[in-house]
Amino acid sequence: MTLTLPPTVTDRAYARLAEIAEATGQVRPLRVAVEGGGCSGFHYDIKLDDPAPEDLVLERDGLRVLVDPVSLPFLAGARIDFSDELIGARFIIDNPNASSSCGCGTSFSV
Fold it and tell me: In terms of CB atoms within 10 Å, which of 26, 78, 97, 110 comes out highest?
């Protein structure tokens, strides 16, 4: 039987979720999903969303990141991070399952 590691969430990603919660006055979970499409076959859909009963919930200090069961195999062992650079600020996924990705960083293939 193969052990599938769940994704991990960096301190920077949780810190950004805390900043969003403080700015909006609401603590909402971040959903990280994988959908078909994009220029490489799959793309990440990252948004604030409400949890569903079947979601994997990664939590620290009341801040939550959600992954649905369909997306979970595509995100096994991935690292969810936040990057704030000159070209923009965004949540990013370092995914060991992606065999290639496009320049935008939101589309990948397996």
Answer: 78
Q: Is 54 left (phi over 0), alpha (psi -120 to 50) or beta?
A: alpha
Across the beta sheet with 100-101, the strand order is 56-60, 63-67, 30-36, 42-48, 107-109, 100-101
Residues 6+ apart with CB under 8 A from 98: 108, 109, 110
Task: Report all structural domains of the chain as residue ranges with CATH numbers, in order of start.
Answer: 27-97 (2.60.300.12)
DSSP single-letter state for residue 28: -
Nearest to 82 by CA among 20, 15, 18: 15
**What's the rounded mean pLDDT across residues 97-106?**
60
Tens of pLDDT, residue by residue over 28-85, are 999 999 988 766 678 889 999 999 999 999 999 999 999 999 999 999 999 999 999 8
